[in-house]
Every structure is written in structure tokens, then in C-alpha cells.
Amino acid sequence: MLKTLLEANNLKFDESFYSDCEVFKSLLQQWGKIHNLSGRLTSSDIDENILDSLYPLNFIDSYESFADIGTGAGYPGLVLAIALRDVKSYLIEPRIKRVSFLNFVKASLKLDNLTILCNRVEEVKDLQVDLITSRAVTNTSLLLDITKNIKKENSSYLFYKGSMLDEELEIAKINNYKVVNRKDRNYLYIKGK
């Protein structure tokens, strides 16, 4: 059960969050079978992806706005927007099929804090956020480069990375970062100044 899983990882939310997650799971399973949104559609796989999306809330600073690059089926951006309804959330996803799904979930859950942009991040104008997130999109150097236009002077980054992170960090030559590991996931948190 999702609540047990999250609470075992020091993540506590009110009951309305869990009802929203049930709606999200149901919609993802329905749409996912038709539109190939995610390879993992069992309830336990979705719960694990929700935990993966939310786990960094244990160690990152709070923020007032964020943009998730290449949100896909909703990880991590949509899940963060559901959990943090007081945070201005932007999902940037270029694929129309996925944007349709994200908009349907937004409408179903009445996520007033959420804006979904059907675009590539390099082409987004007039948006600057406190935190930039991304999961399984591209390497760290390229992510830092293609998100420059949505970055504030002191924006932070949270990238959900796999086993190639050490090589990526060597190439990216960044300072002031922290890596937190959980299972096969490396969370790269680059704190804004």
C-alpha cells in the first residue's frame, strides 16, 4: 500500500493526497495500456515510481516553483504537483500524447497549481523557476545547458539519475552538489547559491 511505503521513507501526506494518487494510478493504467505511457503499470510499480518521485523531499530545500523537464507519464513532476499543491508547478513535455494525459489528470484532480507546456525546454520563454527537475531525460551537462533559459540566478536542480552519474559529474564539472542514493537511483541535487 502506498501510504505504508511512503511513511516507511519518512514521507507523510494527508488523506486527500492518497485519494488523488489512486485517481492518478487508475488513469495511468487506463491510458497507459492504449498509449504506451509507461512500461510499468502494476499498482506496486506505480507506487514505487511515486515513492521515487517524492523521496527527495526528505533532503532538498523547500521551493515556491519548479519545472520538470520531459515529464512523460508524470514522474516526478506530476506527482510532486499532486503532493505540493501550494507550489507553482510546470511540466514541460514535447510529446502531444503525453501532454494530453497530463492535462486529463490535471483536470480530473483540479490541480490549479499546475501548468503543462507542450514544448521542448529550449524553446520555453518567459518562465523562471526555483527548482528544475528531470528524470531519465539526458545527461547532466546537456540538462544544465538546455535549461538555462528557465533558470533564475539561484535556481537549484534535482536530477533523478542512474548508474552513469559518476561519469556525468566528471564531464559536467559542477560544484556544490549532493548525491543521495536509494536502491538503483542516484538523486543529484545541485543547490542554487
Write a brief caption for the model.
This protein has about 190 residues and is an alpha/beta fold. The protein has helices spanning about 1-10, 15-35, 45-55, 75-85, 95-110, 140-145, 165-170, and strands spanning about 65-70, 90, 115, 130-135, 150-160, 175-180, 185-190.
What does this structure look like?
The protein is globular and about 40 Å long. It is α/β, with parallel strands linked by helices and 193 residues long. It has a 7-stranded mixed β-sheet with strand order 3-2-1-4-5-7-6, with helices on one face. It is built from 7 helices and 7 strands.
Instruction: Kindly state the percentage of residues in helix.
Output: 25-40%
Please give the alpha-carbon distance between the first and last residues. Answer: 38 Å
Structural class: alpha/beta
User: Total number of helical segments?
Assistant: 7
Draw up the topology in text.
Blueprint: H1 2-8, H2 15-35, H3 43-54, E1 65-69, H4 77-83, E2 88-92, H5 96-109, E3 114-117, E4 129-135, H6 140-146, E5 151-161, H7 165-172, E6 177-182, E7 185-190
Helix pairs in contact: 2-5
Which labels suit this protein?
193 residues; alpha/beta; seven-stranded mixed β-sheet; 7 helices; globular
